[in-house]
Amino acid sequence: MFANVLEYKANACEAITFKLSMTIYFHGLVRTVFDVTLADSFKPEMTHQIFGPKEIIFGYKNLSVNILCLAGSLETFVDTEYASKISTKLAKGTEPHDILESLTKSYEFELIKTRADFESKVIQEIHFKPFGTVRNKYTSDNGSKSFSIYYIEPGMEDFEEFKVLHKRMQSFLPFFVDGASFIDSDDSQWCYYTLYESYFSEMDVPCFAFVGFMTVYKFYAYPESIRPRISQVLILPPFQKQGHGTQFVQTFYNDFVPVSKVLDIA
């Protein structure tokens, strides 16, 4: 039976799966090295900013691209599997998609190179702590789930280390926000809110899992005022429609409304 070239074309939104990994299995996300293949997962809403307007990955039969992220630090491993790669004859000179090369449009940081390295880092996630200061704490599901919003800006302790984490956070944007663009974290007018779910490991150690983030830009207003503006808000799909966006905005208002040099906010 002759091979069909269509068998080697995959819809990128269907082929790609995101999974978050931490130290225990909790809330349907993978948080233990043993549950990497068992976790609830989520799909990208769009991939045209990575793989072009047709959102097609060419050259692989039965393609599966699992993007595994450590839930706290968001260190990432891209695990690609497929039944076969298209032959030169069938491809008629068209090269198969270089998947990792395409993903570098989103992943402007070093990826973990092997699954073994990824699994070894899962254990280290127990030591991850969010950057910045806590601005808001709240619970959901009748108090069974706890969340914290952290704030950080240039000049605060560990901001340089946070910039590395921010690159990992904003790597989700092209998959969920149409027309998304990355911001310049060297611009001192940016400030950042990061939301985490807090929980305890099997050893009763407090741990944190990334839920989403929000960026705010402090525009100058003559003569000595500022106009803070919300720029980006992203809540990962497993946590959407649970009121987290409202908590972000309320925290932003609580922080900036009392500041005397704030002319207005939006």
From TrEMBL:
The keyword Transmembrane helix does not apply. GO terms for molecular function: histone acetyltransferase activity. It comes from the Eukaryota. It catalyses: L-lysyl-[protein] + acetyl-CoA = N(6)-acetyl-L-lysyl-[protein] + CoA + H(+). GO terms for biological process: subtelomeric heterochromatin formation. Residues 9-178 form the Histone acetyl transferase HAT1 N-terminal domain. SUPFAM superfamilies: Acyl-CoA N-acyltransferases (Nat) (SSF55729). Gene3D superfamilies: 3.40.630.30, Histone acetyl transferase 1 (HAT1), N-terminal domain (3.90.360.10). Keywords: Acyltransferase, Transferase. Pfam families: Hat1_N. Its EC number is 2.3.1.48. One of its GO terms (cellular component) is nucleus. Belongs to the HAT1 family. This is histone acetyltransferase.
